[in-house]
Amino acid sequence: MQTTTHACIFLDMTTGNRIAAAREAENLNQSELARALGVSPQSVQAWESDKNTPRPKRLKEIAKILGVSAGYLMGEDDQEGKNKGGVIEGRFRSRRAREGEIEIPQYDVRASMGHGQVVPSDYVDTIRHITVSADFLLEQGIAYTKPGNLAVITGFGESMNKTFSNGDPLIIDRGVNSVVTDGVYLFTLLDALFVKRLQRLPNGVRVISDNDSFPPYEVAGEDVSQLVIHARVLLAWRSQRL
């Protein structure tokens, strides 16, 4: 369940101040925001210190990731709250789960891939944020790098429908950026996004679809440099109409 919390923000805050405040409310550090935007951490630092101002298109991307409006970041509207005596009571999504729970945010696939890379046409965000019991993950044998690296994406396509269906929520670990062991990964290859099973080979990897209608293939030699691992998929919640 998504909840909200309130943060007091003075009207004379700069755009950089507002970006920093919204980022902290989302429990993101500068490097995590930079990675989501496909920019360097130095760029985020420059924005928040008001050394540079994001262009309008970039500001919209920042606002989408942080769950606020671009106008709010620029101080042009109070979409995220009401003006109360010189103070805006900003409404940000709370990341404060109860004891023993982990708040898992949506992973912005489009922002993370960067310019020129292709998001599948059937990719539609179905679930944005979930809260799970840490004990549940432990009982499922789910190991992850750290709670802050967990995120949720939407499964897409039919190539993995023995494991998950198109539209199923998937929990991923963004702290895994290489094929450390055989498993299911979120990755780009030649600028296209995939979720498939990867098997390590001596000189590359084998890409396996759990749907037998899609034959496996190997990525080896120079093509390995075109393989970018975004995360490992840890868990799929299969949805079924009743």
Q: How does this structure look, described?
A:
- The chain is an alpha+beta fold and 242 residues long.
- The chain folds into two domains: 4-93, lambda repressor-like DNA-binding domains (434 Repressor (Amino-terminal Domain), Orthogonal Bundle), CATH 1.10.260.40; 101-236, Umud Fragment, subunit A (Ribbon), CATH 2.10.109.
- Helix content is 22%, strand content 29%.
- The chain contains seven helices and twelve strands.
- The chain has helices at residues 15-25, 30-37, 41-48, 56-66, 70-73, 109-113, 134-139, and strands at 4-10, 83-84, 87-93, 101-104, 130-133, 150-154, 169-173, 183-189, 192-201, 204-208, 217-220, 227-236.
- The strands form three sheets. A seven-stranded antiparallel sheet has the order 6-7-12-8-9-10-11, with no helix packed on it. Strands 1-3-2 form a three-stranded antiparallel sheet, with helices on one face. The protein has a two-stranded antiparallel sheet with strand order 4-5.
- The relative contact order is 0.12.
Q: Mind sketching the topology for me?
A:
Blueprint: E1 4-10, H1 15-25, H2 30-37, H3 41-48, H4 56-66, H5 70-73, E2 83-84, E3 87-93, E4 101-104, H6 109-113, E5 130-133, H7 134-139, E6 150-154, E7 169-173, E8 183-189, E9 192-201, E10 204-208, E11 217-220, E12 227-236
Antiparallel strand pairs: 1-3, 2-3, 4-5, 6-7, 7-12, 8-9, 8-12, 9-10, 10-11
Report Rg: 20 Å
Q: List segments where confidence is low: pLDDT < 50 over at least 5 consecutive residues.
A: 1-12, 78-95
Q: Quick one: how many beta strands?
A: 12
CATH architecture annotation of the largest domain? Ribbon
CATH class of the largest domain: Mainly Beta
Name the helicity range.
10-25%
Shape: globular
Q: Which structural class matches the secondary elements?
A: alpha+beta
Q: What is the CA-CA span between the terminal residues?
A: 22 Å
* Helix-strand pattern: EHHHHHEEEHEHEEEEEEE
CATH third-level topology of the largest domain: Umud Fragment, subunit A
User: Strand count, sense and closure of the main sheet?
Assistant: 7 strands, antiparallel
CATH superfamily of the largest domain: Umud Fragment, subunit A
Q: Strands of the largest sheet, in order across it?
A: 6-7-12-8-9-10-11
Strand portion = 25-35%
